[in-house]
Model the fold of this input.
Amino acid sequence: MTDTRRAGLMLIAPATLFILVGFLLPVGVLLSGAFRTDAGWSLGNFVEFFTTPLYLDVFFRTFRLGLTVTAVAAVLGYITAIAITETSPSWRGRLVALLVLPLMISPVARTYAWLVILGRTGFLNTALQTVGLTDEPLRILFTETAVFIGLIQLFFPLMVLPLLSSLENLPRDVIPAGRVLGASWFAIFWRVILPLTREGLVVGGTLTFVGSLTAYVTPAILGGSKVLMLETLLYQRVSVANDYASAGVIAVILIAMSIATNFLLKRIATTRRAAR
Amino acid sequence: MAIRTTTLATLLGGLAAAPALAQDLTISVYGIAQDEYREALYEPFEEMCDCTLTVETGNNSERLAKLEANAAAPVIDVIAFSDAAALEAANAGLLAPLDMAQVPNAEDIYDFAKDPIGGGMALGYTFYATSTVAVAGEAQIASWTDLLSDGVVDRLALPNITTTQGPLALYMIQRALDPEAAEAGDFTGAIDLVAEHRDEIVTFYERSSQIPQLMQQGEILATAIGRFAWPGVANLPVGAEWIIPEEGQSGGLNVLAVVEGAQNVEQAHRFIDYWLSEEVQTKLAEMGADSPVNTGVELSDDQAEGLTYGADMAEQIHFLPPAVQIENREDWLAQWNEKVAR
Done:
């Protein structure tokens, strides 16, 4: 072993040891509980999870909301990012700062603000009644709609920023070239902008989808126990039922879904790049 | 290698035990009102015993899990639990029987607090009533089932089954429907009734701290809460009333116990005795931290406002026996998950 190599290993050793002891080991011990039953090592806890109607409901609700939030954030994200790239550099800086601002506020404070906005006497219901769209206040709090709104607001900046970065790297003449060749705006987006900014979409999509799956505060406050998500169910199993086996199963599922999403989206981006 | 492992274990064991000197105590309690506890209980006791108190905090299940994990080498001497959590711990062999001769102040507490989980394993130190609260003139509550009546149910927040208040509210609704079934721990009727109105009920709250905001925003007009959460609602400008329906009110009891294998058993008893003394119970009650179980405590009406205080109030409480809770909890949760939570 050369001196340089030895020095390199010694330099990396403290961080590696810290991650092993402080993260991988406790997480491993915690997750291993998911694979242990009274009969020893088995997948029994997973079988029980996927055969319990409530847990299945929660699993599909979490997955469905994650996908919906990601899709809507992507659509709104592209519109916002394209609009920002069309502004002057000085305005672009201000708009990006505005976009990043919510990230500097605690998710708890942001979510509590939604409690006020979405309540019976909140801004939204008052506005809807004022313009005559509804006679009486709508119930929005403690529904999937409230969780959806909260999650969109939470992760929207994380979708826009990578898209913005990709759009800024887009060659300036590709859009005019498409227009000159007679392509519609939709064709330009679908055949030019989307393929060339796909990597930004992959990063934003991963952050938004995984973030939605693993968010706790927003579903807990805006959905409550009537709109259980995997994270809120996990908390409930640990803190109330003292059921670490089910909690371990949920944690394994969340980690697996996060890794699978990242892998899948990366693969799509790589395939596309190879095709180019 | 074996020697090295043993040495390391001894060293780690020594390090873990090092802070606890002969007479020092480690206690495990709920995280609430710790400033008040420090002033009224911990600091005076430390001065009196010339020892150090180490305080660990958490909810029932967290602390029960810790107790189980450290059963071979307990670090806690005295633990505060709900009566049901204490019975669960006692059944698992995690608590030691109390020597009542070393707790003379136990003579002065209410009878229901003297041996709440049986076997002389614990003593009640505080209790609370759980009843209905409604905005006056907006929601009429004469019976617990009125919570689920037209005009009330769509502005109602009920405690979730997973909270301490959840089973107590179900217990009282079941008492209104069928008292015998309620006493036997069969809450099927109550859970069915809640399930029938599941979509109308605003929310099943997880923390009673949510209630003041929901009531102030006009989201809810009625709820069921513990008396300890009442001051936060009473101070709102909505005109909320604490209502005791015709079936009465439910309630819970928190207890103190000595952990099996505790290192300082004598000191642990002394601490429990001091906590139950008229002096400490009065101070904690005056600070609004805990409702007193010591019958000698005297409070003014203002001081008693947020507390569950007095023999009259205590007599009206239908406690849900801890054994019934432990025996039926899984069934309640399963039924709730199947009919209400989905």
The interface with chain A takes residues 59, 61-62, 64-65, 160, 162-163, 198, 201-206, 213, 217-219, 333, 337-338, 341-342 of chain B (CB under 8 Å). Chain B has two domains: 2-127+252-314, 128-251+321-341.
